[in-house]
Design a protein that fits this description.
The structure is a homodimer.
Chain A (H helix, E strand, L loop, with lengths): L10 E7 L5 H12 L4 E5 L8 H7 L11 H12 L4 E7 L4 E8 L4 E6 L6 H4 L4 E5 L3 H15 L4 H19 L8 E7 L7 E7 L9 H11 E7 L5 E7 L5 H14 L12 E3 L5 E3 L1 H19 L5
Parallel strand pairs in A: 1-5, 1-6, 2-5, 6-7
Antiparallel strand pairs in A: 3-4, 7-8, 8-10, 9-10, 11-12
């Protein structure tokens, strides 16, 4: 029996993964579906302990737990969960420096994006839905080089060196958090057209997933598939694959079905599936849109204690 | 029967009063007596919501509650009281701007200096000992003009205008907090020698004050007097007056007696009673030293649940 939540306790979504894994892109669409005024987004990168120059001197990457105020992040998650505002630190990615702190008010939904937000038991216990994003590595590399050079003032060489320095910390500290996720999302370029994204979802039994039977029928065999599989750790999972080449008509039918499962879907349809490709072009991906809707379903379900349909 | 405190719960001292009332000067000596490594000092000015320029645009003084993150200050006091570290905002008085946040670890004693730290019930409940500092207004004016010009980049005219703008907010928000204090300290220039400080202490019955009988004998009638009096609100108080002209020999005898009441006094004697006069000269005041010792007695008593002697 799902219990009623205490009034005013926000719903917490975690979106964790390596840098440039698409965390913000995924979160942005979910916030748009729920209504941006009802969502507080906390970027855990703000809890970096040092500026970029200081990290270099200390020979630390931002992926190292000790390079972050993780105890304070945990404290702030607990405060937000109790509906309290926080005064949070600010890390400016454009310059790689620390900035004056800023208020963040709790909202009905709190989305926490970060490298290490599942690092401690105390943090993990705050989340209602835990997503881990692990794109195909070649895709992540393209995204990261494009973003670091365009928005963060790195030269291409610096961005490449930064990725190499980070690889060890990523394996030691980021990847192990995958095992705590309810949903692992893997984006990969579609084989036939690398400008499209395939989206694979490992749906762990830690959440009650919706009955996707009607969705599968609507999606058709080509674009939308659910299969029983074993995860890399040998454990059983449902594996939901959405092809980047899913026909728009099919995608629309699946979207409609997912919207019908979300009782809060009274507001105008948000522009879902938006992302920026490695050329800097704004694009729309049906598979990304469906990922965003599926995750939103779980948030709304957590908020209202809906029985799975 | 005094109860034992929970282990690791810091002792909280509040030092509240208008700007340039001598809060830091008083607190500095107390921290030195207890050992600086065992004391965390939190300056509530760090919770100013705006920089100086922005306050001017908004026509706000820093004494207005809404010009401060008081809810966050209360939250941080509660966290420190539970022994947790905080990441606190930073206000730079030298430039009047907000700076990146900084960690503050809880210590066995936490001293909170500020304009508005008794503003809410939640904040007041955090303190073991609440001191309110209200110097003679002519003295405060000299201190404030001297400091604002020397350390905070104000011209003399700007500093004067700032005091005028603040007077209304001081009456509305700072002065009313006086009624919550256990001890009200009033410094005034000694009549016969304005380079010396007289210190008057209103000792409210909210704390169990030490038996000052032996102290009074040691101090002699000229320099150290205790009298039953009525406060400005008509309520009965003990009024302890320490003259700036107390003879060094007498002051030393009183200091020795107060030290003997502080069981933690095993560490080397700290340089007490240090202050900077309005000419910028470093001076030592016996009356200030005795104030610092008296307040420290109460902190140690709160820590160890000592019965009053």
């Amino acid at each position: 029996m799902p219990c009623q939540r205490p009034a005013n306790q926000p719903i917490f979504l975690g979106v964790v993964g390596d840098s440039a894994a698409g965390k913000s892109t995924l979160a942005r669409g979910i916030a748009a579906i729920l209504g941006n005024d009802r969502v507080a987004v906390l970027q855990a990168d703000d809890y970096h302990r040092h500026g970029r120059a200081e990290r270099r001197q200390l020979n630390l990457t931002p992926l190292a737990p000790e390079a972050n105020h993780l105890d304070i992040l945990e404290q702030h998650l607990c405060l937000l969960r109790r509906g309290q505002p926080i005064l949070k630190p600010v890390y400016d990615h454009a310059t790689g420096t620390l900035r004056p702190s800023e208020r963040l008010e709790a909202k009905p939904v709190v989305i926490v994006e970060g490298l290490l937000a599942y690092h401690s038991r105390g943090m993990r216990d705050c989340f209602d839905v835990k997503v881990f994003v692990e794109p195909d590595e070649s895709l992540r590399t393209s995204w990261k080089l494009a973003r670091d050079c365009a928005q963060r003032g790195y030269s291409l060489d610096e961005a490449r060196q930064s990725m190499e320095r980070r690889a060890e910390d990523s394996a030691a500290h980021i990847q192990p958090q995958r095992s705590f996720a309810d949903i692992v999302v893997r984006f990969a370029p579609t084989t036939e057209d690398s400008s499209l994204l395939d989206a694979r979802h490992l749906l762990r039994p830690t959440l009650a997933h919706p009955d996707l039977g009607p969705v599968l029928d609507a999606g058709g065999k080509g674009g939308f598939q659910l299969a029983l599989a074993r995860d890399s750790d040998g454990k059983p999972v449902d594996m939901l694959d959405i092809s980047g080449r899913i026909e728009p008509r099919r995608a629309k039918a699946v979207e409609d079905l997912l919207w019908s499962l979300i009782p809060e879907a009274s507001h105008p349809r948000a522009p879902l599936g938006r992302f920026t490709d490695t050329e800097g072009q704004d694009r729309t991906s049906h598979s990304l849109a469906l990922s965003q809707l599926l995750i939103t379903y779980h948030l709304v379900k957590a908020a209202f204690g809906l029985a799975p349909r």
